[in-house]
Every structure is written in structure tokens, then in C-alpha cells.
Amino acid sequence: MKKLFSTKYTDRSVTLALFLLRLVFGGLMMVHGYDKLTHFNSMARMMPDPFHLGSTVTMSLAVFAEFFCAALVVLGLLTRLAAVPVIINMVFALKLGHHWHIAGGGEMATLFLGGFLAILIMGPGKFSVDRLIGK
């Protein structure tokens, strides 16, 4: 019980926390992206097109970030690099989809943004493919 209220931490607890952070945020983002992947055509029609590339290209970029980059984060492979497209995507989701209203529907985008920013800053941790290959 004493450890529960301690402010000290161990390398093992940080390693486990980073692993859980990658699994939870990456896994949930993959679920979110999988829906876009499986309903691509119908969802692409509603996708905002801020760069005037076409809604299909914009939707493809969102699926790339939300599904494929999130999968890399879960694996801990090219973790920091893979977190960047997700972060960019969540900023655009907040701006275009929620008009910066964090408490008015943008809570999920804000949570994902915070989680992936933490992963970008902290890296993949010891339980990752990046560690296995020496990156």
C-alpha cells in the first residue's frame, strides 16, 4: 500500500507505462482508422479538403495516419516518426472537424493528440521493435 502513494518511480514502471500508452492510444486509433478504411468511399465524400487535393486523397492521408501509422506505434516500430502524421491529423481534426471546441465534441481528438504527443516526446520504451533493432 505504501508504494501506491509513493512519488518515486522505477525504470520498470516507466517501461510498462510507455508500453501501455502505445497499446491503448495506438490500438484505439487503429479502431478509429479501421472504420474509415472499411467505409472509405462513403466517408470520403464527407471529408473536408483543406489542401484542395481532393477528398479521396485527404481521406487516404487520414487512413494512413489513423490506421497504418497507429499500427507502427503499437508495434513500437519507427515510433516517433509514425506519431507525427497522427499528431498532424488530430490537429486538423480539432481545427476542421471541431473548430477548436475541445469540450464541444473535440474531446477524443484532444485525448489522441495528447497521447501521441507524449509518445513522440518519450519514445517507444524498452518493449518495442525499435529497441530490438537498435533504433
Write structural notes for this entry:
Helix 1 packs antiparallel against helix 3. The protein is mostly helical. It has six helices and no strands. It has one domain. It has helices at residues 11-38, 40-44, 55-75, 79-97, 107-122, 129-133. The model has no long low-confidence stretch (mean pLDDT 91).
In whole angstroms, how far apart are the ends? Answer: 37 Å
**Low-pLDDT segments:** none
Total separate domains: 1
Could you state the oligomeric state of the chains shown?
single chain
Average pLDDT level: 91
Number of helices: 6
Structure keywords:
135 residues, mainly alpha, 70% helix
SSE layout and pairing:
Elements: H1 11-38, H2 40-44, H3 55-75, H4 79-97, H5 107-122, H6 129-133
Concise summary:
The protein is mainly α and 135 residues long.
